[in-house]
Amino acid sequence: MANKSKLTLAEALASASAFLQGNDYDEASAQALWAFVFDVTLTDMTRALREFVDLDALGYFEDVLRRLVAGEPLQYILGRADFMGESFVVNEHALIPREETSGIIQLAQDYLGDREEARILDIGTGTGILAIMLKKFYPNAKVTGTDLSQEALEVARQNGQKHHVAVSWWQGDLLKDFPETTFDLIVSNPPYIGYHEQAVMDAHVLKFEPTMALFADNEGYAIYERLARQLPAYLKPKGQVILEMGYQQGARLQQLMQEAFPNRKIEVIQDYNQRDRYVRISEEGTV
User: Fold this and answer.
1) Is 127 annotated in some ligand binding site?
2) Could you read off the pLDDT of 159-172 as tens digits, one per residue?
C-alpha cells in the first residue's frame, strides 16, 4: 500500500497554486498540471479532492513544479509530448513537437489521398513524429526517417516501437551518402532559424532544446540550400516535397526551390494562423 501524505488533493493543489503564483505563473494552472502530469480527468480529480495524496505522487509533482518555474519545458520534465492527439517520447536530444508541423501531415494526406502504397522519406525526423504519423495513416507505405543525430534517432526508434509501426531509420547528414532511390513523398521540418534571431527567442527554448535542430547558417537557409541541390535526384517524376519553414522565408525559399525544380510548381502555403509555413513542390508539368 502506498504511503499517504498529510495533504488532501485539494490542499496539495492549493499549495501548488500558491507556489506558482509566487513564481509569476498562473496559479489556476495547478489543477490542469496535475491532470496532465498524472493523466487523469478533471472529473476524477474532483472526486478525489478530499482524499489524501500519495507521498511519492506529491513529491514527484513538487519536483515537476520546481523544474517548471526554473524554465524547463514541461514536455522534457515528463518525457512526453502530444502531437495530433498522440503521445510521443521526447528528451533534450530532439525538438518538442509543435502543432504547426501537423500541417505537413494534412498536406501529405491531400496529396496521397487513399493511395495504398507509397515510398515516403522524412528528412531530419527528430522525434519521428512525421514518419510515424504518416505510417499510421498509410500502413502499407514504406517510410524512412533520417537524422544527423544518433541520439534523436534513438528517440524516434522508441516512438516507433511505442506506436507499433515499422519505419526504417537512417543516420546521416541530410541526403549525403543516402542510398540511391526515389520517393513519392519527401517531407522535412529542418532547422531554419537564423542565429541572428536568438535575441528575440524564448530563453527556455535556447537553454533546453537542441541547437542543431533549431538553427542553420546563412540566415536560416543553409539546410534548404543543401536540400535544393539534393532533392531532385530522390523525387519521383510525379512525387511531391513538403517543407516547413519560418513565416518570413516564403519568397526566398520559393525562388530557391524554383531554381532547383524549374519544371515543377512551387507553392507557399499558410498554417492555421494564416502565416506562411510550408513550401510544396508539386509534380512535373504543373507549372
Assistant:
1) yes
2) 999 999 999 999 99
